């Protein structure tokens, strides 16, 4: 509420210009002049000065109701802001549609909620940088930040592997190049186990989205110099579906070590292949609008995320959650 409105509110509260001036520690002429100036700007008289005690005009009554509502809203706002500072209330919306995020966010949200149980965390699993710009979401997990008005904080680097079910017709021919599941989770793969010649997969069909995802682009770069089998195009960015199709023997997929660590089901029936290729590594970032940098809830969530993601090995070894 602006100063003139505060003066008006005080006059009505004390039903007197002199009493209001005394309570506000200002002179009565100064208070009267301020109120008169506001009335001139509004185009009507707020107070009927002919009555004793002072009363409101018809339009003044409407205006005073507005000031009372404004005062209550300001009190509510102050309370909510204080509660947010104290981390006693508030909400945060996180955007992600990648398999790595589905693996990480439950862990981070669990830790965060245990520490700040009154903060409501919402996960939007169909998000984009556009939603971040529109402030539909507060945070976004991404691979390649592109918006200049956003801060991008690196979390860690994940590694991509090729996975194919052992029952696939081409699986037996490349089985000798496979690495154990446990070697992926423990990050104990040697250089000798990494495939440098992508022609090994010339006869292997890959399951891709056909929608320009990060995985699609990386696979295209990996095999661009080699003849490969036809791709199986699935028009969905939901990696869980593509991974399940691989398990049904339809073809191979690119899969991250973070996803695999949280999805050990049937790993004994799947061949995994490590690649010596720069496109098999990608960094995960958490993004937020730079203008939101002083948001305490956002800052505390990022702090929790950085703490958990600092030790990638711990994430890979943690199997407290899996996909249904």
Features:
single chain; alpha/beta; two-stranded antiparallel ribbon; 13 helices; disordered C terminus
Give a short synopsis of this structure.
The chain has about 325 residues and is an alpha/beta fold. The protein has 13 helices and eleven strands.
Overall description:
- Helices cover 42% and strands 17% of the residues.
- It is of the alpha/beta class.
- Strand 7 (207-208), helix 9 (214-222) and strand 8 form a beta-alpha-beta unit.
- The longest helix is centred in the first third of the chain and has 28 residues, at 58-85.
- The relative contact order is 0.15.
- Residues 320-324 have low confidence and may be disordered.
Estimate what percentage of residues fall within beta strands. 15-25%
Number of E-type strands: 11
> Helix count, per DSSP?
13
Helix percentage range: 40-55%
Order of helices and strands: HHHEEHEHEHEEHHEHEHEHEEHH
Between the first and last Cα atoms, what is the distance in angstroms? 52 Å
Characterize the largest beta sheet: strand count, sense, and whether it forms a barrel: 7 strands, mixed
Question: Unreliable runs, pLDDT <50, ≥5 residues?
Answer: 320-324
Mean pLDDT: 86
Shape: rod-shaped
Gyration radius from CA atoms, angstroms = 31 Å
- Class inferred from helices and paired strands: alpha/beta
């Amino acid at each position: 509420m602006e100063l003139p409105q505060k003066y008006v509110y005080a006059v009505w509260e004390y039903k007197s210009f002199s009493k209001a001036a005394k309570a506000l520690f200002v002179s009565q002429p100064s208070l009267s002049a301020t109120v008169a100036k506001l009335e001139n700007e509004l185009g009507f008289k707020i107070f009927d000065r002919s009555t004793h005690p002072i009363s409101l005009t018809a339009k003044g009554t409407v205006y005073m109701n507005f000031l009372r509502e404004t005062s209550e809203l300001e009190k509510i706002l102050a309370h909510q802001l204080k509660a947010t500072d104290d981390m006693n209330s508030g909400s945060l919306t996180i955007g992600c549609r990648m398999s790595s995020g589905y693996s990480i966010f439950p862990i981070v949200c669990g830790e965060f909620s245990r520490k700040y149980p009154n903060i409501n965390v919402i996960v939007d699993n169909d998000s984009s940088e556009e939603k971040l710009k529109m402030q539909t979401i507060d945070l976004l997990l991404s691979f390649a930040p592109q918006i200049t008005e956003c801060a991008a904080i690196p979390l860690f680097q994940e590694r991509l592997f090729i996975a194919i079910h052992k029952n696939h017709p081409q699986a037996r021919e490349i089985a000798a190049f496979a690495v154990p599941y446990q070697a992926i989770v423990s990050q104990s793969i040697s250089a000798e186990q990494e495939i440098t010649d992508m022609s090994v997969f010339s006869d292997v069909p890959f399951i891709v989205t056909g929608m320009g995802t990060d995985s699609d682009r990386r696979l295209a770069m990996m095999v661009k110099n080699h003849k490969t089998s036809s791709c199986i195009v699935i028009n969905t960015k939901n990696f869980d579906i593509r991974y399940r199709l691989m398990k049904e023997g339809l073809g191979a997929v690119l899969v991250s070590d973070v996803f695999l660590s949280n999805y050990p089901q049937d790993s004994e029936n799947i061949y995994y292949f490590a690649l010596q290729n720069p496109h098999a590594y990608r960094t995960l970032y958490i993004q937020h609008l730079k203008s939101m940098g002083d948001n305490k809830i956002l800052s505390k969530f990022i702090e929790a995320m950085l703490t958990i993601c600092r030790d990638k090995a711990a994430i890979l070894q943690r199997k407290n959650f899996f996909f249904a």
